[in-house]
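Run log // design_07
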C-alpha cells in the first residue's frame, strides 16, 4: 500500500494550496490599481455630494435639487456595487461576461448625468454655503468619472468596437469544438 501511495504521489501534481482568502483581487483583467483608486474616489465624492445635498434645508427650485439627489445617490450606490464586484472574485460568479462594456457605458452615462445635475443645481440654487459645497463635490465626482472613462479608453480602447481583444470563454470554445467535431463527424 505504501508503494501505491509513492507511485501516486510521484505521478500527480498536488493542487496548489491557497495561502489566504484574498478579499480584493486588484489588479485583475477588469480593474488595475489606478482605476481602482479612481473608482474609490468616485464612490467617496458622490457620497459626500449626496450627503451635502441632504443637508440643504431649503431650495428655490426643488426639482433641480431632487435630480441632483437622485443622480448622486445612484452614482454612489451603483459605483460602490461595481467597485465591489470588479475588485473581488465576485465578478466571476455573477455570470456577466461583458464587464468592460458595462463598466465603460456606466461610467460615461453617470459622468454625463452628474455634469447635467451639477450644472442644473448650480443654476437654480440660492447660493448658500452648503449648496456651493454640494455643487463643488458634484463637479469633483464628475471629474473622477471622466478620469475613469479616459483611463479606461487609454488602457483598453473603446469596448463597443467590433473587434474584441478578449479571449473566447470556455463555453464558446466548447461550442466551437462541438460544432467543428459534429461537422467533421458527419462527413
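design_07 sequence
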Amino acid at each position: 500500500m505504501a508503494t501505491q501511495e509513492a507511485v501516486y504521489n510521484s505521478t500527480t501534481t498536488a493542487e496548489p494550496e491557497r495561502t489566504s482568502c484574498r478579499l480584493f483581487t486588484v489588479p485583475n483583467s477588469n480593474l488595475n490599481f489606478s482605476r481602482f483608486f479612481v473608482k474609490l474616489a468616485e464612490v467617496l465624492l458622490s457620497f459626500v455630494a449626496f450627503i451635502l445635498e441632504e443637508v440643504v434645508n431649503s431650495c428655490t427650485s426643488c426639482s433641480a435639487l431632487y435630480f441632483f439627489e437622485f443622480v448622486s445617490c445612484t452614482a454612489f450606490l451603483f459605483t460602490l456595487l461595481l467597485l465591489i464586484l470588479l475588485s473581488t472574485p465576485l465578478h466571476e460568479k455573477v455570470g456577466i461576461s461583458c464587464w468592460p462594456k458595462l463598466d465603460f457605458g456606466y461610467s460615461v452615462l453617470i459622468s454625463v448625468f452628474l455634469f447635467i445635475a451639477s450644472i442644473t443645481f448650480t443654476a437654480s440654487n440660492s447660493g448658500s454655503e452648503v449648496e456651493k459645497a454640494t455643487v463643488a463635490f458634484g463637479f469633483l465626482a464628475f471629474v473622477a468619472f471622466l478620469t475613469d472613462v479616459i483611463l479606461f479608453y487609454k488602457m483598453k480602447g473603446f469596448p463597443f468596437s467590433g473587434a474584441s481583444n478578449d479571449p473566447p470563454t470556455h463555453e464558446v470554445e466548447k461550442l466551437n469544438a462541438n460544432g467543428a467535431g459534429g461537422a467533421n463527424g458527419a462527413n
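The two ends are 49 Å apart (CA to CA).
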